[in-house]
Design a protein that fits this description.
Layout: H1 3-9, H2 14-21, H3 25-33, H4 40-50, H5 54-58
Length: 65
């Protein structure tokens, strides 16, 4: 997962991201450490917020053509 990297790049704290997504700070922490699974709705919201793809957030590499 690349949530932490994208969050920091956006200049947000875990608490601020949690507020924007209407979840707790501990939930964001769990997502960042891999201890919790990110629901699709929050994954999509973060992709919109960070102006990136869900693949980026999931740490998926694109195949080079």
């Amino acid at each position: 997962m690349q949530i932490k990297e994208q969050r920091k790049k956006a200049g947000l704290t875990q608490s601020k991201l949690a507020e924007l997504l209407a979840v707790s700070q501990s939930t964001v922490c769990g997502w960042e450490t891999g201890a919790a699974t990110v629901p699709v709705a929050q994954l999509l919201a973060m992709a919109d917020l960070f102006c990136c793809t869900t693949d980026t957030l999931l740490g998926r590499q694109t195949a080079s053509a």
